[in-house]
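Design a sequence for this backbone.
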């Protein structure tokens, strides 16, 4: 057995929680109260007449795990808060012994290493943790599956009219066609099999910038093709420079590392890389939490040119000596503003300090997102060469105008009924419902299942296998409704998501922009409906006004009134970052505090884990 076999990543769950996730919603209601979801349900809702206890158990039994046919079988891992109070994951910790805990970002768990407030769980976190043994299913190898794609929408050509601004010294000319990108034959073939006929604006400008060897901070609206904008020129350069075909070695030294904040997103980026690299000697590999580390190490050792990873697992692999960084030529931060906010910044700094990693002068660093708060832009400069280019396609931080945004004023107690009404009109159309907490995700998914709406859920307390199953069931249409926390807000590219519902509005305007960007992608039309609770969402109202008007959307008069009344209340709004309108080097912030992204405010309750 190799040394790493014995150092398997430990689960996010405690031993006590193992086994409960699969059956906690099944037969034994006495088990139900043990998990976090159970506690939330009991305390918050049992008296409201919609509870489980009085309902027909047959609705909750049977069916696939995590899938609601007649009843929702998923739910949290039941580990309870304490199970993760001490660590995010043992695997991550393996490489991060020096990391004394800290805040992981606005929607995440507040954790302090080694500190566990729940005495019942304390022993568990100190003792043996179960290995993560989950090995994801092998991806299909046939071309039809690899190149499966959805059609671009009627507004795809409107992308050409979007205003583009490139700032920085001496930017290269944009390309107008993929032919001008001078891709090698195999890449050209793969692009065409993917159904891409012409590049989107971020590709027209981004591809030549990257090919010219420049560092880049690129901002373009959700669903406008940022992934190919970085993958294609990187793969092209690697091929052109005759990158060594991957072969087995105990230490792999990838030429490109791509990081993203969530497991599902990095896996999606990996699939895109695998598609574009199809039939070439370039080998992409993916690593992320919740999956057997041994399995991922075996995959890396078979050869790795492009390593896609979530930060924790990536650092773990570097720490274990399986991945070296001395040959690194490209470092890509997707959802860059997220990767550099309070949650992930320490990991990013640790990554660029990895042994042997080329300095920023000797590598290319590329950042992509749809949102860039000004303070994040300033910090990003630490990672970039001083002459980096800033590419803005449309309004920085703006919402995609192909998404029709509507708002419904509703109190928190009326939200469930409203949701049900809404889903009855949308029928089997795919709908993504965002809620604030993991507990809420379980609760709403269960409620909808009870109401015979085929629903599944995704959030950070579900096992990786369950998360993947939930996405698969949503994609396939088996469950046309997916209830999600912020873990699904960024980057996910799921065909035919017609509706996004903000059951709970986020606290942060950038988060809103990313969430509604799960629909209306690639020139398709989408709809977003947000439940606005005047008691809870007032602080977001002015930011919403700005986003709505910049996306040429109708602004309800009551929202306008709410925005003005809220802004009048002294001290009501917490301090915020400036919402950058463009390259912050040009002094481009709106300087309208109320429209800005807010700093991540540590939360204690039922917070989300991204990675
Ligand atoms: N040139 C193109 N022609 C047709 N389809 C494209 C083109 N470029 C990208 N797409 C498709 O558009 C969809 C959205 O692309 P992608 O996921 O890269 O968007 P994004 O800008 O990264 O979005 P987000 O900000 O949400 O992460 C994908 O399905 C992708 O395959």
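Sequence:
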């Amino acid at each position: 057995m190799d040394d790493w076999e014995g150092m398997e990543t430990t689960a996010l769950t405690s031993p006590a929680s193992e086994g409960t996730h699969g059956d906690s919603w099944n037969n034994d209601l006495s088990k139900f109260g043990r998990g976090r979801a159970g506690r939330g349900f009991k305390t918050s809702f049992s008296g409201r007449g919609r509870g489980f206890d009085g309902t027909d158990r047959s609705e909750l039994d049977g069916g696939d795990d995590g899938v609601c046919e007649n009843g929702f079988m998923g739910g949290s891992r039941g580990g309870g808060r304490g199970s993760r109070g001490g660590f995010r994951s043992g695997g991550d910790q393996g490489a991060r012994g020096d990391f004394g805990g800290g805040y992981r970002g606005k929607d995440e768990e507040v954790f302090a290493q080694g500190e566990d407030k729940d005495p019942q769980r304390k022993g568990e976190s100190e003792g043996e943790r179960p290995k993560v043994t989950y090995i994801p299913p092998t991806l299909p190898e046939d071309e039809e599956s690899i190149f499966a794609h959805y059609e671009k929408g009627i507004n795809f050509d409107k992308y050409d009219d979007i205003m583009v601004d490139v700032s920085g010294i001496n930017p290269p000319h944009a390309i107008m066609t993929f032919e001008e990108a001078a891709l090698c034959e195999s890449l050209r073939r793969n692009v065409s099999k993917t159904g891409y006929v012409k590049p989107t604006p971020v590709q027209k400008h981004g591809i030549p910038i990257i090919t010219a060897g420049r560092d880049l901070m690129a901002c373009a609206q959700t669903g406008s093709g940022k992934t190919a904008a970085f993958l294609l020129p990187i793969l092209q350069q690697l091929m052109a420079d005759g990158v060594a075909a991957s072969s087995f070695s105990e230490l792999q030294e990838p030429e490109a590392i791509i990081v993203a904040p969530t497991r599902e997103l990095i896996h999606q980026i990996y699939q895109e890389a695998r598609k574009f690299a199809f039939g070439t000697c370039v080998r992409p590999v993916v690593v992320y939490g919740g999956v057997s580390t041994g399995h991922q190490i075996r995959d890396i050792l078979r050869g790795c040119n492009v390593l896609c990873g979530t930060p924790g697992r990536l650092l773990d692999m570097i720490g274990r000596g399986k991945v070296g960084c001395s040959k690194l030529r490209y470092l890509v931060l997707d959802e860059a503003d997220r990767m550099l906010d309070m949650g992930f910044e320490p990991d990013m700094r640790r990554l660029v300090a990895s042994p042997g990693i080329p300095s920023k002068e000797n590598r290319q660093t590329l950042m992509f997102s749809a949102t860039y708060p000004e303070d994040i832009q300033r910090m990003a400069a630490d990672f970039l060469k001083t002459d980096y280019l800033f590419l803005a396609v449309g309004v920085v931080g703006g919402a995609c105008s192909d998404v029709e945004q509507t708002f419904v004023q509703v109190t928190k107690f009326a939200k469930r009924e409203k949701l049900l009404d809404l889903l009855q009109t949308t029928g089997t159309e795919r709908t993504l419902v965002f809620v604030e907490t993991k507990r809420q995700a379980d609760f709403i998914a269960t409620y909808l299942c009870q109401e015979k709406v085929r629903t599944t859920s995704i959030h950070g307390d579900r096992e990786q296998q369950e998360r993947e199953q939930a996405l698969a069931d949503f994609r396939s249409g088996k469950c046309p409704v997916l209830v999600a926390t912020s873990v699904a807000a960024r980057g996910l590219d799921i065909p035919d998501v017609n509706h996004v519902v903000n059951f709970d509005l986020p606290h942060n305007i950038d988060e809103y922009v990313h969430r509604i960007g799960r629909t209306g992608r690639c020139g398709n039309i989408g709809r977003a409906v947000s439940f606005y609770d005047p008691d809870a969402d007032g602080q977001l109202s002015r930011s919403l006004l700005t986003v709505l008007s910049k996306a040429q959307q109708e602004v309800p008069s009551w929202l306008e009134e709410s925005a003005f009344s809220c802004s009048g209340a002294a001290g009501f709004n917490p301090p915020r970052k400036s919402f950058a309108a463009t390259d912050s080097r040009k002094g481009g912030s709106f300087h309208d505090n109320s429209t800005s992204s807010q700093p991540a405010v540590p939360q204690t309750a039922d917070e989300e884990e991204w990675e």
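Residues 149, 152, 196, 199-200, 203, 220, 222-228, 370, 491, 493, 517, 521-522 surround adenosine-5'-triphosphate (CB under 6 Å).
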